[in-house]
Amino acid sequence: MTTPLRAQREQRGWTKTQLDARLRQAAARRGEVLPQPQSLARQIARWENGHGPVGEFYQPLFCEVYECSPAELGFVERAEIRASDQEPLNELATELARAASVDAEVASLLQAQTDGLRLLDGRQGAQLIRDQMRAHIAHIEELHRHAVKPGVRAMLAKVLADTSRTGWLAGA
Fold first, then answer.
1. Is there a single domain that holds both residue 112 and residue 145?
2. pLDDT in tens, 114-143
3. Which of 47, 79, 113, 135 has the maximal Cβ count within 10 Å?
4. Residue 127 domain flag
């Protein structure tokens, strides 16, 4: 089976050496340097035979050299995979940003929230705050597990211990 990449080269009647020269010219226009000809030739053979995906660095070069879209060169499927891979990376970035935002002030606010729940427990009873207490404990545990700033884990551990004691008293 002929890959779209190989079909484009053969359709133009180019040798691999001619393709190499054109790729190097395109890379030079971008201020990039390509590997030695033997190494690049092996990569091109792999890509043209469908033995591996064309990397993100080379895709725009091939598009420029062949004057084709990524879809015409068979890169679209690879782009869709990258988009789906991006979602977990975005989630990770969000979680890291959230973890980095936890500081002494957040620990104080969580302690104040614990104190407020303790007051509610004393006035209205454990049954009414049980779900709130469980959610509060789970939130502190999550923040503690991912805390990144020095000293914050110790502060959160103290709040968690106090909150868990209150939760135990409340029957959480």
1. yes
2. 888 888 888 887 787 888 888 888 888 888
3. 47
4. yes
